[in-house]
Amino acid sequence: MTVDVAIILTPFIFAALTPVLYRFISKKYIGWLVLSVSFILFLFLTTYIPRISDGEVVAFTHEWIPSLGIHFTTYLDGLSLIFSLLITGVGSLVILYSIFYLSRSEQLYHFYCYLLLFMGAMLGVVLSDNLMVLYGFWELTSVSSFLLIAYWHHRKASRAGARKSMIITVAGGISMLAGFLMLYEMSKTLSIREIIGNVEAIQEHALFVPALVLILLGAFTKSAQFPFYIWLPDAMEAPTPVSAYLHSATMVKAGIYLVARLTPVFGGEALWFWLVTGVGLFTLFWGSFNAVKQVDLKALLAFSTVSQLGLIMSLLGMGSVAVYLGNSSETIIYTQAAFAAIFHLINHSTFKGALFMMVGIIDHELGTRDIRRLGGLMSFMPLTFTIALIGSFSMAGLPPFNGFLSKEMFFAATLHIQELNIFSLDSIGFLIPIVAWIASVFTFVYCLIIVGKTFFGKVQLHLLAKHPHEAPIGMLISPYTLIVFVVGIFFFPNLLGHYILRPAMASIYPTFPTTQELTPHIHAWHGIFSPELWMTIFVIVVGILLYRLLKRWKPIYRALPQNLSLNSLFNNGISFSESFSNRVTGRYMTGNLTDYFVYIFLAFLMIVGGYFLQTDIFSWSPVDRESLEVFEIILVLIMIASSVGILFAKSRITTVFLSSVLGYSVAFFFIVFRAPDLALTQLVVESVSTVLYLICFRHLPEIRKEIQPKWIKMRNIFISLAVGATVTLVGFAALNYEKFITISYFFNDSYELAGGKNIVNTILGDFRAFDTMLEVVVLFIAGLGVYTLIKLKAKGGGTNEN
Amino acid sequence: MNNIIVLPLIIPIFTAVILVFLRNYIVVQRMITITTMIAVSIISFFLLELVQREGIIKLDFSGWKPPFGILFVADTFSVLMVLTSSIVTVFCLLYAFSTIGERHENMFIYSFVLLLVGGVNGSFLTGDIFNLFVCFEVMLMASYVLVALGGEKVQLRESLKYVLINVIGSSIFLIALAYLYSTVKTLNMAHIAERVAEAGQDPMLTTVALVLFIVFSLKAGLVLFFWLPGSYVVPPTAVQALFAALLTKVGVYALIRTFTLMFPHQPEVTHTIIGIFAGATIILGCMGALASRNVLTIAAYNIVIAVGFILIGLAVGTESAIAGSVYYLIHDMVAKALLFLLVGMMVYLTGEKLIDHMSGLIRNYPLFGWIYFLTMLALVGIPPLSGFVGKVLIGKGSIEAGSYVLLFLGFASSLVVLFSLLKIFLSSFFGETIITNEDKKPLPIASMASFIALALCMIAIGLGAEQLLVYVQDATNILVNPSIYIDAILSES
After folding, report:
1. CATH for A594-739?
2. Domain NADH:quinone oxidoreductase/Mrp antiporter transmembrane, which positions (chain B) (predicted)?
């Protein structure tokens, strides 16, 4: 057991301990305990930075199911280090914030238990090298996210949001599992490193593209890409610290992690490029476009998260062309997109985390997040206002904040990519920068909305539940820490670039020899003629214009009919599948025994009869007339007559009579075939049952004439005849099957073997005595059963026994 | 030494007879019953180790050598099934003690349960197809009584249907046996396998195999499951759980045996049909689970889905797929028993069956709620719980064989399983509490113990996959190489 395994296990151990510990620890301290766990992990992870930035990787394997190649392998390289630091770092800040945010009357130990569970699962996702283990942790993040969204599960909306997120992300996870299994089938290994190691071997495989699509489905659902993003706005029912942590900084980035991690595998494929870039760009646009119409600050931030995730996703897509182009001095420029992706990922975690905490403060102090009720809070909450201002402007891509740097790199990447002439980029590549620019305008607009509608304008005290006042210091520490990073990264971006981003680039482009070239020097200023600068300037100008004219163009949001939105499609889809299933199930599960018999016989006919008909095995050898005795013909005729007669019998007595005729005829057959003891048995059984029937039937009412539509009668007649015919014809064919000699020749020597002259007796009493014994058991059960059924009658009224 | 093979059948049956004479001593009955089942579990485990060490062992009754006499065969697959069913029975009994009520205990319910288990174990162990029929009869006769025991109106109605449908099933079984005997002219399964292989499984033999397929499909609830949701929800909870864990699984076991050992030579016909049936079962089961708002019915349709899923493995037929089926079978026996015990307990605690009439149970019974949650995750196949390895193996096998439709159906069904069980969790366990602390019924400790024990089994089957896989792979090896089985039975004769 090494330290890296401990990193994953520690949160789980404490998650298991919290429900126990809370009995002994005051509610005041439980948060601090959890905080210390997370913070120590963070500090511990920082000690890896120098080693990892020197190009080292730390791997450790603990065997779990070696016969299936499933190992518990931890693998710490540049990419996983960034994510681990974010998970524990932002995690610590969120826990600190939550200590002040959550009321002590809540069931805090549940909250912290889920949170630790999530932290461990998320660390597991980014540190696992084995696909199956990664999948396990992946689903575990969905599960813990479900629990956290449903934390206030007495609220209906919380439950609905939790369900939606669970269904969508688990569906993605299952599809991803199928994709992983296909990767396994192609590469014969579950280790990501080994798969990357021999990518050439799998690229031509027929399963390569299906695996790609299935795995992307997993990544897109988790990272809330279009059209799967619909769970994320509903997930905002979770307590705000959770939204800040899972639904903006960490869990939703698991999909990004996966795409980055698998870029070396799938990066050369055009489909990968277009799916990741295209879906990412559209999500970027769609999220920002929809964010503008939101009135709930948290929903607005949710859509902005969707949009920003799309941005990062599209950057990774653009970066993947470098894998296709291979390593050369001209292609290095395309790797910068991936660089920008990771850079923006970090930046997004800082400013979005701060913004969520800001919204949490407003919600907490004012009791509402509705921007129609808010306004003019700048003078009441100056410190909170600062957070909002810096966070929003960074998100909008303004200097001097870190968002500006990565946004500029994003613009640069979109401009570079359209110049390529592969993957049909020469024909539609020009759309990429245009969509990016339009989306950025909307981003700018909603950033203005966050700041403007909340902090400027007139304060409407009568709409607020509480008098506005500044937040307690405890809730401000965490967002301010993040704000420091927002500003700090702007001024010292290359420090981050060198120690953190560079090793991650080595993980995304393992085939590129030196990482030094892969790490561009980040500048804030690219000269007055740089196109990305002008794109930013136009974003600002147009953005301010649109914000001013917001009222004029807002009606376009009503153009899309409400019942066509993805949300209603999802909900209607679920209710339709439920009602459709209900109709179908109700249709065939009639509870009517006749129908059930029809199903059995239809299955028999279709499978046995169908197969029998289409093979040519029917054979029929007429018995020669000499051997046929007169009795036999008479017996057969009697049997036919009585069994046809049963069908037309009007009273129970007739039915019993006719069926006993049938039984006795069988007994006669036994006599004809010289098996007197069988005949005797049959006679006894037949006599006893006839008498029993006659006694019982006296107590039953007359048979009611069944009234059935004619077609049902015809159907039943047809099925009965067909089944009878099938059984008979197969029987004839079986009789003529002469490939083997029977084992019964052995029993001819019964006297020698078992000391009995009667072969039937010896079979029943010796050769197959075990069957006979068990048949006796069956009779025993039947007898005992009848006894209990008579004795144990249900008590009247409701019985309470289970 | 070989006589040990018959013990899992004989001990329960003998004890059942003894219990009849102890009718009024309920505590003694309980003690004897559970001791018996623990003993059977231990014996089965011992038998498993023995089979591991010595390979397939058999017991020829009365010393008549195969193919002339009846015999019991212990290979890894059958013993694994016996072991799992015995362990599950122990915990279902534990649950029954605290909930079933004296009225039933007075009426030989433990005898019937033991007889049922005897029949089930016999079906797993027998190496003779006519004896399989007889063991089925023992099992079915006991189950008829158990469905009807209690004598409530709905029980009688459902039990009548159950009995009649199974009588039809048994008749078709008899017809199939008649065909079988008149074609291959033997009843010993290994001998049948040998002769079928010799004849190259011509269309006539395949027709016979298909008749058997219909019979076992009816028992397993493969497409022909319509009798299941009605009859499984009427008996007492512990009995429901036993049915859920054991009865359909015997049918699944018989299908796997039939189409790996005796009739594996025409997969383009038989295995295609199995695949189509498995797919249809999954679709219909999923629809049933989606449609229902009754906890018991939802759980019953989940059995149906699992049957379809397990048989994907058989239809696909690669080594990993079969291993997946075996593994999933073990998981499903444990997890379904637990699921039925849990939903039965919900009904017991609230007196309601519809999810809309229950709410906030997790506040009243936290541990109970979390065990339900865990069971749900295991049934969805989330690692490291028990459903995962089987699911991965079946998925892997489907990919190897290129059966993408079945792969899709199987994996998509996990989502419906999640959806249907989450529906119960969200509306009945989460939400506002409607039971006040004064009205709260206490949850019997013995029931809780059985929940915990079964939950631990689920975790162990998942985490200890490597240890279990040794057995599963051994079982699979025999299933995909039927000559091992045939040689072990027939070589000396």
Report:
1. 1.20.120
2. 128-414
